[in-house]
Amino acid sequence: MEGDRLRAMSGELSAFRDAVRRFVEAELAPHEARWGKQQHVDRAAWRRAGEMGLLLCDVPEQYGGAGATFAHECVVFEELQRANVTSFGKHVHSIVAHYLLAYGTEAQKARWLPKMAAGEMVAAIAMSEPGAGSDLQGVRTRAVRQGDEYLVNGSKTFISNGYLANLICLVVKTDPQSGSKGVSLLMVETADLPGFRCGRILDKIGMHGQDTAELFFDDVRVPAENLLGGAEGRGFHQLMEQLPWERTIVAVAAVAAIERAVELTTEYARQRRAFGKALIEMQNTRFKLAECRTTAHIARVFLDHCIERVMDGTMDAATASMAKWWTTEQQCRVIDECLQLFGGYGYMMDYPIGKMYADARVQKIYGGTNEIMKELIARSL
């Protein structure tokens, strides 16, 4: 991280990074392969991360967070990516925390944020449906007010943390006739909740340890006091306001993956010999790595600019969309180039570059597809 503000924090962030790296390498990375086979992480991992203060870094201490900055959050995201740990769904967990922090009542913040910070509660945000992905106005899950409760019916799909989540920020229609003004966010505690069912964990191309699941709501009763912010019809506005934060952290993961891919491939090219010399001595290899290293540097400079804008409150939707689509496109391109330099070994899952290749592809889809990102940027022209 090399922006002016980030440079001023470099010593603090470096010490924090060292601690995070040790934790990730000791507590998370050794279990990544096993988590991939079981399709979810262990709950104990969430509690350990909570004990280390790594779950809600930039949430105020009064709500159980570490009281640090967005830059500290980014360090954790980067270290997870560096260690190739894509199973641990901190990203979504943090997104839900920011919805609560921005719009929750004091009672809602006090009720849920400390448990999320401690890893006692795992959070998910349920937007996508079988017929509504990037088109949030097409949501059909319905919440009907009945006295002091909402009666919820509908289904969600592609929900990260869906299997483990015991707190879900649920996108619902409270007034189907009002278009975007009829969308609300309802916080749902799932433990022993009648009518709620988590379906299968979806079998994906990559990110096998990330518990992406289907969720079903059949006459589920949720207390009216769980309506985020206490008022109906604000959900679409809340989603639009927070999506730039979400898209920035997608870019954080993308840039960290690019940097790590270049690092791993350079190390491999120095060691691998072909035709009597090291792979890195061949001009094509050197030129490819030079191109990838340049992309990594440009991406890092842009990302640091975006991180500082998030920190000072000036990040806008168009810039976040630029960061999200461009860095994820580069992530997929650079990792593909790097895998090619590994040759046949790159296609083997024994080498981390193969897993990075499979895990990267979804980055261009979730958080709003890259096509939607370009449309949002075009609207700002």
Approximate strand percentage: 5-15%
User: Helical percent range?
Assistant: 40-55%
C-alpha end-to-end distance: 29 Å
- The coarse silhouette is globular
> What's the number of helices?
12
SS elements, strand count:
9
Taking the sheet with the most strands, its summary is:
4 strands, antiparallel
Radius of gyration, CA atoms, in whole angstroms: 21 Å
Structural class: alpha+beta
List segments where confidence is low: pLDDT < 50 over at least 5 consecutive residues: none
Q: What would your notes on this structure say?
A:
The protein folds into three domains: 118 residues, Butyryl-Coa Dehydrogenase, subunit A, domain 1 (Orthogonal Bundle); 110 residues, Beta Barrel (Butyryl-CoA Dehydrogenase, subunit A, domain 2), CATH 2.40.110; 143 residues, Butyryl-CoA Dehydrogenase, subunit A, domain 3 (Up-down Bundle). Helices cover 50% and strands 14% of the residues. The chain is built from twelve helices and nine strands. The strands form three sheets. It has a four-stranded antiparallel β-sheet, with no helix packed on it. A three-stranded mixed β-sheet has the order 1-4-5, with helices on one face. Strands 8-9 form a two-stranded antiparallel sheet. Strand 2 and strand 3 form a beta hairpin. The protein is globular and about 80 Å long. It starts with a helix and ends with a helix.
